[in-house]
């Protein structure tokens, strides 16, 4: 067997392997998503705890308490306080409209589907070449 033929054979088998591994990774991701959605429904709860954390004010120096209640945010002027309150209200409105579990599942599904949509044609094309030879 000539050297170029051997290199071509290794190349075809390697790309077929990469394609089938991508399909397996995407498929296992979908199985994982299904298990989390139907059987292990609390598997992702810890990942979404950050939503309960109040947002930090931006554009404001480190909040200091000057004899006020604990956690009180002190502002230098009313304009800064108003801007912070508007930003906080906007953030809370956006947060109520977004379901983090659904968003994460959509990201996972897109990623898994991309593995399958790329890996399957790579595998099929190179495996077909191998079978033809």
Entry keywords:
mainly alpha, single chain, 133 residues
Task: Summarize the entry for a quick read.
By secondary structure, this protein is an all-alpha fold.
Strand and helix map with partners:
Blueprint: H1 3-38, H2 78-97, H3 100-132
Helix pairs in contact: 1-3
Explain the overall architecture:
This protein is an all-alpha fold. The chain has one domain. The chain is built from 3 helices and no strands. Helix 1 (3-38) packs antiparallel against helix 3.
What's the shape? elongated
Number of helices: 3
Round the Cα radius of gyration to an integer and report it: 26 Å
Structural class: mainly alpha
- Regions with little confidence, pLDDT below 50 for 5+ residues: 63-68
**Helix content percent band:** 55-70%
Give the H and E element order: HHH
Q: Which sheet architecture does the biggest sheet show? A: none
- Residue-averaged pLDDT: 80
Whole-number total of structural domains: 1
Q: How is the quaternary structure best described? A: single chain
Distance between the termini: 13 Å
Strand content: under 5%
What is the number of strand segments? 0
């Amino acid at each position: 067997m000539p050297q170029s033929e051997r290199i071509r054979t290794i190349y075809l088998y390697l790309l077929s392997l990469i394609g089938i591994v991508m399909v397996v990774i995407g498929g296992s991701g979908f199985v994982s998503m299904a298990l989390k959605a139907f059987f292990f429904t609390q598997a992702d709860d810890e990942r979404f705890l950050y939503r309960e954390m109040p947002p930090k004010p931006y554009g404001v120096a480190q909040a200091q308490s000057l004899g006020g209640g604990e956690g009180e945010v002190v502002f230098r002027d009313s304009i800064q306080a108003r801007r912070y309150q508007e930003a906080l209200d906007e953030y809370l409105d956006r947060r109520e409209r977004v379901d983090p579990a659904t968003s994460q599942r959509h990201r996972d599904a897109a990623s898994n589907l991309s593995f399958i949509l790329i890996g399957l044609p790579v595998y099929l094309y190179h495996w077909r070449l191998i079978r033809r030879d």
